Amino acid sequence: MRRPNKTVIAFFIFIHLGALLAFIPSTFCWSAVALMIFMHWLTASVGICLGFHRYLTHRAVILPKWLDYIIITIGTLACQNGPINWVAHHRMHHRGSDTLMDPHNASEGFWWSHIGWMCYTQHKFDHPARITKFARDISGNRYYQFLEKQFISLQIGLAILFYLLGGVSWVVWGIFVRLVLVYHSTWFVNSACHKWGYRNFEIKGDLSTCCWWSAILSYGEGWHNNHHADSKRANNRVKAFEIDPTFIVIKILEKFGCLKLAKRRLTSI
Q1: pLDDT digits (tens, 9 = 90+) for 196-230
Q2: How far is residue 261's CA from residue 63's CA, in Å, rounded to a whole number?
Q3: Distance between CA 31 and CA 166 in Å, rounded?
Q4: DSSP-based three-state secondary structure for 253
């Protein structure tokens, strides 16, 4: 059963309307644009792609606890829900990709998989017991629970900090514009990468593709068919031209001894 989630719908409208303030000349300054670009990379690539996705969801890398909490906090600043819900929904997606057991089933159309699925409360995917089941390894972590409850408050705190440092322009570009761009670059992995592109691997019943422009926007996540073929790989690259910027960050952190690539396992989460 699906029910429209008016709170989520209102929130998305608010964020997108806020981003339109960037078209007002008085809100433009180069420092604000630079902030947006840096925060886009930090929250999308380091926070979501590395932290929420490759580390927490698929355990492709191993992080020390201090770096774990830093990167997962950064991921929470992408404002895509807390880590527990994010991980649970993504694991559900892999478990039932493009079927009725997929929260953002691409078989139901582009817009459903892009944004529509978040605008409804879906009992079979959003029930707390099911979230706990799919995120059983992290759902008991108190810090993650805190991030889950306070992810909006953290965004408000960040907005206040940006206002104090750079005024309204830093809030418009560093919060609203950045969130809209990060949202859609992430959402295109769920939608465009199940509709357009090519496939290196044929996976029965799975619509995942490799979409080059989505890979650019999402720091390597757009090589989605490669990822669905082997979700435990920390590197989404298969062909020489498939550049994976997030894996470059992983290799840099590995070089400095900040993380390790996980040993390959036969089972998947």
Answers
A1: 999 999 999 999 999 999 999 999 999 999 999 99
A2: 9
A3: 8
A4: helix
